[in-house]
Design the sequence.
């Protein structure tokens, strides 16, 4: 099965040969990325999808934010970022339980401290894309921060930037 078929973009349902050619071009250009960069982008996208799916649902807003971040951080054109995010989301649904820790550990191994902190910020940005960081998402981000060997202070500093989106603080009773 081709990746285009896997993504539902194959010949069925009236797709054109031009659409299939466009997908092939994107896949080929991803194959041409320098291997270390490709590994970084893939791990980055996967960890984003891990947080987006922490509440067992990836919203349209979370998907769009992941695409924007993968494009910006990964230096990819929008079409490539869309494909990378779709693959990451699918992989997370299929293999998430067993791969989450392993892929985050690989990101920890290949990323600098600055890149890890940027990922932490991006995790909150994806979670806050619907104006609310759920407790499940917040818990998953904390877990990832530990797996990335970031300090509690690192986690709290980034979390404070997104405090107005934290569901746990929105549901507090008025005094």
Sequence:
């Amino acid at each position: 099965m081709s990746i285009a078929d896997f993504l539902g973009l194959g010949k069925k349902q009236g797709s054109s040969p031009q659409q299939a050619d466009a997908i092939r071009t994107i896949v080929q250009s991803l194959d041409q990325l320098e291997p270390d960069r490709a590994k970084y982008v893939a791990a980055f996208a996967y960890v984003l999808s891990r947080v987006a799916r922490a509440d067992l649902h990836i919203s349209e807003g979370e998907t769009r934010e992941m695409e924007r971040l993968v494009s910006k951080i990964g230096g990819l054109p929008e079409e490539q970022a869309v494909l990378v995010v779709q693959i990451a989301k699918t992989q997370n649904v299929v293999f998430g339980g067993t791969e989450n820790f392993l892929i985050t550990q690989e990101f920890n191994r290949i990323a600098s401290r600055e890149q890890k902190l940027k990922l932490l910020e991006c995790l909150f940005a994806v979670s806050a894309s619907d104006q609310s960081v759920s407790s499940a998402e917040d818990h998953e981000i904390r877990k990832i921060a530990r797996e990335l060997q970031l300090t509690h202070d690192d986690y709290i500093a980034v979390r404070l930037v997104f405090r107005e989106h934290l569901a746990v603080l929105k549901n507090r009773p008025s005094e």
Notes: Residues 78-110 form the longest helix (33 residues).
